[in-house]
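Posting this for the archive.
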Amino acid sequence: MKKIAVYPGSFDPITNGHIDLIERGLRCFDELIILVGYNPTKTFLFTVEERIAIIKELVGENPRLKVDSYSGLIVDYVDKMDANIILRGLRAMSDFEYEFQMALINRKLHRSIETVFLMTGAQWFYVNSRIIKEAASMGGSVRGLVPENVLRRLKEKYPGFKNNS
């Protein structure tokens, strides 16, 4: 039986920390679905379609990877895809508390779905999409923290953004 994991997130924008988790997830699972989520409580810089396009450009044609989007309960999507694993990354204790709660409710909603946590690589411990957007919006360089195609897209969104230092 194939081990299929779903890696959900907003990916607004995708960071090198996300890429690290995707690469490591592929070492653990036969297939990985990167699931771009809709969250009505968040304001996004990039549309769902833009985020999917950015991720597809990064991952290329890999038969073990799929990029998709979904607006319902994650457990319903995981079940629909015949997967049974949700992959999540952890950076800090604050991540753990939130992710632990989410894993518990997902387990309550669907008993056969497991959540697997991977620690973020040490060099990406402080990187998240929110601080990337904040730094870029104020003209700061985030080179080395996000892929090159994200740097180009950030320049389009923030004309004062420096992507060369």
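The mean pLDDT is 92. The chain has six helices and five strands.
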